[in-house]
Amino acid sequence: MENEFDTFAVFAIVLVCVATLAVGAFGLRLSRTTSDFYVASRQVGPARNATAISGEYLSAASFLGVAGLIYERGFDSLWFPVGYTSGYVVLLVLVAAPLRRSGAYTIPDFAEMRMESTGIRRISAVLVVVIGWLYLLPQFQGAALSLQSVTGWPTWVGSAIVVFTVVLGVAAGGMRSITLVQAMQYWLKLSAIAIPAFVLFYLWTSQGSPGPREVVGGGDALREWYEPLTESAQEPYPLYSTYSTLLALCLGTMGLPHVLVRFYTNPDGRAARGTTSVVIGLIGLFYLFPPIYGVLGRVYLPVLGEHIPVDQVVLQLPKAALPGLTGDILAAVLAGGAFAAFLSTASGLVISIAGVIAQDVLRPTLARFTAGDSGIIQGFRLATIIAVVVPFLAAMVTAPLGLARTVNLAFALAASTFAPLLLLGVWWRRLTVTGAFAGLFVGGGLAIAATLFTVAVRPEPGWVATTLSQPAAWCIPAAFLATIVVSLLTPRRIPPRTARTLARLHTPEGVELGSLRQP
């Protein structure tokens, strides 16, 4: 089925891209030093930083994927927005302030500071890039599908537009510039998803349209859609899948590179906690709306076309419910919001990946030819281009698994690697270098193997497919167990400055640490 060219939607997408570049250009005027590019000189207040984090965190999976899952699988998928939000509660309670007090620029910086090991830093750098690329993949694929749905153009065009806009914004002004962009994009996304939701909900209630129960039908189809934890052909082990998903989302949030780097932009640990509290409210407000689209999709789109993926329910719903100009305008608003989601999340991911590539790969080489901030900034800009090449090419040659499902794999990998390192690194003084190595290798190896098998082979529904596509339930305990057991077996590999490092992480700002100095 050929998609018709939608002038309103294309105009909205162009408008979002132009606004992104314009706000980024304004931020460029403020970006001059290395600290500006990496952490916005650590001067971003809680309110603005929370808005930027929310804009960055609400990705393609949030804007399109959650509604698609609820449309396809019913109320069981409501655990996704719950998990996405509760991850910040864990982050707030356990690691937000200590991470800011570490003074690091990136996760590898923190890993090296805490473990006093360049080897741990290198492994962390590789994992940041892998997780970032895995998370970037659905952003590019979502942009490709969204633009194709409103223009009929080849899928690579949408991905290319996101790449071009993100590279210009990130390379030009770094973190200071992107902070302004993402704060703007949060309010844009919230408005874009809320306004059509109110209109469609009013239409449904005022016209006496049938409810989802009547449309879904009776028998097993109704039970699978309405009743939680119901076995089906697509989800034969719902209890395992639910717990594994929640574990991945709750612990994976603290391991996402593009989330953690934001906490390094706060002035101090107290601001980091305040930022996280506001984030919970902002993303909780946003997640009130995707379920509306999933439920109303069952009313107005009871059967999607053969070539229309469920991730397109949000974009297709207004035209199905309101044929004519009003539906076209609402669809255009949603298309613009979806593109804002792709751009904001991709920008944060590219910054985190580029920061690691610039610091750990390019900096040693470029230091031979350039010196000072200018050389470091040029390296960051080159790293930005490198950061988008691999996921862009991968998006062209791999078929989408579903936006929310692909993002869930990134969460599982982050939870299986960085969550044990961060939690034990912040709270357990007996963590050793060897134990940290063991946890990263075990958790990362198992999660990457499961992810590659799921993406490449796509096994038929069953126990093997379920455990591999939802690896968090067994990868995370394996990583924690390996880290703890190996640390207890190698007590002599505790970093020598552990006591001072932990004091730095847990001591409020302004308290003098001179008495804790070690010879």
Provide key terms for this protein.
single chain; 519 residues; mainly alpha; Sodium/glucose cotransporter; 23 helices; disordered C terminus
Please give a quick description of this structure.
By secondary structure, the protein is mainly α. The protein has helices spanning 7-28, 34-39, 46-57, 60-73, 79-94, 96-101, 107-115, 118-151, 155-207, 212-216, 219-226, 238-252, 257-263, 269-286, 290-300, 313-321, 325-366, 372-397, 403-427, 433-457, 463-469, 472-489, 498-506.
Describe this structure in words.
- By secondary structure, the chain is mostly helical.
- It has a domain of 358 residues: Sodium/glucose cotransporter, CATH 1.20.1730.
- 76% of the residues lie in helices and 0% in strands.
- It contains 23 helices and no strands.
- Helix 1 packs across helix 9 and helix 8 packs parallel to helix 20.
- The longest helix is centred in the middle third of the chain and has 53 residues.
- The chain is globular.
- It starts with 6 loop residues before the first helix and ends in a 13-residue tail after the last helix.
- The C terminus is likely disordered.
